[in-house]
Design a protein that fits this description.
With 80 residues, the chain is mostly helical. 45% of the residues lie in helices and 0% in strands. α1 runs antiparallel to α2. The chain is elongated, with a radius of gyration of 23 Å.
């Protein structure tokens, strides 16, 4: 098992990275690492957020009704 002292040491390193980060992305990564280290220390499940949208998220524009075209033969994508 990892000792609390080792985890606290790593948290301190990540905190320094967050303080010295040259851009927001580096700061967010360091803060995310701190959160993960805290979760490990507390023995809880870690959920690391990603910057990309989840594959299940569908943009609102794609949920609307299909476009109507005078040259289309039907509702199917394969109807020409």
């Amino acid at each position: 098992m990892i000792s609390y002292d080792q985890i606290v040491s790593q948290i301190e390193k990540q905190l320094q990275k967050a303080k010295m980060g040259s851009n927001e992305q580096m700061k967010r990564e360091a803060l995310s690492a701190i959160g993960a280290l805290c979760a490990v220390a507390l023995d809880t499940e870690v959920s690391i957020p990603t910057t990309m949208a989840s594959p299940t998220a569908i943009p609102v524009s794609m949920q609307s009704t299909p476009l109507q075209d005078s040259g289309a033969n039907g509702d199917s994508l394969f109807d020409f």
